[in-house]
Write a structure and sequence with these properties.
10 helices; seven-stranded mixed beta sheet
Length: about 260
């Protein structure tokens, strides 16, 4: 049984990306582009003191929590600082952010500027917000589905009111490809992750079993993405596809 530490155990995409980066280069410069409240970065930095972390978070409330967690441990940025941020990150990570970004072209342009010449940008985004359905046998799930549906409908209004934290709009595979190309980035790989049923099961795992379950979860998704890609290909569209089972999509982007 592996004793390798894992982080962000409730989300297989985050677990896998961070694990792979730390395995490859524990002294890397990592830019978390949309860092939220900081997740497990405090634990990661303690375990990997040679790692250099740069975080950008535009939301004021989230940034306050991020600062409380990482002040003095990482380079922290907010507001318009993204316009002039000058770094060469070995890795950029973006977790469940892109679907909430209004100006996606600018977002990718800034990422390209901050990416080292041989760096990798792990762009992970979620489609679960847009696949809500009413399960007639489970009324307790109805409020969440209705709220998500309303948020999607009101997306243009949130932009006009500058309520950026409420904005969300689907990122289709075609749009992601077009935006990446326009920004001068090339898609090196595509992966679907976060099996819905496994994500729910992870929440029921006792703490001492969570890491083992995360390893099993990633191994299962490895096989789905590699061994059964051809069989799943017919379902990799936009309206009826693998995203119903694995609503998280991760692109590895590099300089074109």
């Amino acid at each position: 049984m592996s004793t390798e530490p894992l982080y962000w155990l409730g989300n297989s995409a985050k677990v896998r990306i961070i694990r792979d980066i730390l395995r490859t280069n524990p002294q890397a410069t990592i830019f978390d582009y949309g860092a939220g409240r900081g997740g497990d970065w405090d634990k990661i930095l303690v375990a990997n003191p040679s790692l250099k972390l740069v975080c950008y978070e535009p939301d004021a409330a989230s940034f306050a929590d991020l600062k409380n967690k990482l002040d003095g441990k990482a380079q922290l940025h907010t507001g318009n600082s993204i316009e002039t941020l000058a770094i060469e990150a070995d890795y950029i990570v973006s977790f469940s952010v892109f679907e909430h970004v209004a100006d996606r072209a600018a977002y990718l342009r800034h990422a390209k500027r901050c990416l080292a010449p041989t760096g990798e940008f792990h762009l992970n985004y979620d489609d679960g917000h847009f696949r809500q359905s009413l399960d007639l046998s489970s009324p307790r799930t109805w409020p969440g589905a209705v709220v998500e549906h309303i948020r999607n409908l009101l997306a243009p209004l949130w932009l006009r009111l500058k309520k950026y934290g409420l904005f969300q709009r689907r990122v289709t595979p075609a749009e992601a490809q077009q935006l990446a190309t326009a920004a001068g980035l090339a898609i090196a790989s595509v992966r679907y992750e976060n099996l819905t049923s496994f994500k729910a099961l992870a929440k029921a795992m006792p703490p001492e079993r969570q890491a083992d379950f995360a390893r099993f979860w990633i191994e299962t998704e490895d096989k789905l993405n590699s061994q059964f890609a051809a069989e799943a290909n017919a379902r990799l569209g936009d309206t009826t596809n693998l995203w119903r089972e694995m609503p998280s999509r991760t692109l590895v982007l590099r300089h074109a």
